[in-house]
Amino acid sequence: MVSEQAKVAVFGAGMIGIYVGGLLARDADVALIGRPSMLDALADGVRLTDVDGLDETISGFTRTADPAALAGADLVLVTVKSMQTADAAAAIAAHAPPGALIISLQNGVSNPDVLRAALPGRTVLAGMVPFNVAQRGPAHFHRGTGGGLVVEDSPALAPFEPLIGRSFPLTKSSNIVGVQWGKLLVNLNNAVNALSGVSLAEQLRQRDYRRSWALSVAEGLKLVEAAGITPVDAIAMPLKLMPQIMSLPDALYGYVMAAAGGGKVRVDPHARSSMADDLARGRPTEVDYLQGEVVRLAQRLGRKAPVSARMVQLVKAAEQGAPPIPAKALYAELKAAKRG
């Protein structure tokens, strides 16, 4: 049973976790569990801003690296990187109450299953965060794109719907696998943005970077449909039209996007992908859980995913210090990979 003021633990409080947990802290008892390098600067609160004009400083939450802060949680939001999911599950098993609801707000499609396998008897729901968050200062986090939260529909979610809904538009989905794959296909641009070395807005202004994304999405769409999965559009642009729209000449692309956005394109000029942030900080990326997931799906179907496979190689090289790749060169690399 949920107490009058829900206790929420955000496990793996990076940029997404701090932003989500920070907003929830206006109405809940929130513990942000993460690296001191991220949380120490929040001693006097966290400033949260967004592309829609929000500018609020929030305090009163707990900051800690100790997973024992999971004790007593009614709701656990898992926001660790995909490669850390097994460790997160072990911490939850050791410290969180058996009745706590667990929601994965992670990239990729396999993390909820990893959590369920490691946490038998507990309720684990898949969720999806469509927006981008950038760190603009040690204690300043900015949502640079639009969107609310999508969570797998379940009766277990009902006690928390008012809390979440006060901070985010909340959509409950009966096709969460389709939601996850739809977001993953969009997130294939994370690697393109990371390899570009420029902001998301600047990357999207360059046709060959967009066409690189288009090749990735087109490849992924064919495989997802072959697997019998119905992907759900994660952004306003329909997935099935993305390869064509992204491949348009710059002027026509800008016109289409402005028309679709009602006169404004909702991409903050400072936004960049989480993978770009990981490269900038010298950390391993999640490419194995994005493009790598497409490659594994192709293998299960007895097919190939040469564009995604090449992107994995290029990002791995960037992790080892390879420089950014200009748009024309990246598109040429991916076209060559597709041709075989």
Textual characterization of the structure:
The chain is α/β, with parallel strands linked by helices. Helices cover 42% and strands 15% of the residues. Helix 9 (207-226) packs parallel to helix 15. The protein is globular, with a radius of gyration of 20 Å.
Write the layout of secondary structure elements.
Layout: E1 7-11, H1 15-24, E2 29-33, H2 36-39, E3 46-50, E4 55-58, E5 62-64, E6 75-78, H3 85-95, E7 101-104, H4 111-118, E8 124-128, E9 133-137, E10 140-143, E11 149-152, H5 161-165, E12 170-173, H6 176-187, H7 189-196, H8 200-204, H9 207-226, H10 242-246, H11 250-260, H12 274-280, H13 291-300, H14 306-319, H15 327-339
Parallel strand pairs: 1-2, 1-6, 2-5, 3-10, 6-7, 7-8, 11-12
Antiparallel strand pairs: 3-4, 8-11, 9-10
Helix pairs in contact: 3-4, 7-9, 7-12, 7-14, 9-13, 9-15, 13-14, 14-15
Which bin fits the share of residues in helices?
40-55%
End-to-end Cα distance:
57 Å
Q: Quickly give the CATH architecture of the largest domain.
A: 3-Layer(aba) Sandwich
The CATH topology of the largest domain, please? Answer: Rossmann fold
Q: Which shape, going by the Cα principal axes?
A: globular
**Main β-sheet description:** 8 strands, mixed
The pLDDT mean sits at 94
How many DSSP E strands? 12
Please give the oligomerization state of what you see: single chain
InterPro entries: 6-PGluconate_DH-like_C_sf, 6PGD_dom2, ApbA, Ketopantoate_reductase, KPA_reductase, KPR_N, NAD(P)-bd_dom_sf
Enzyme class: oxidoreductase
Family: Belongs to the ketopantoate reductase family.
GO biological process, one term: pantothenate biosynthetic process
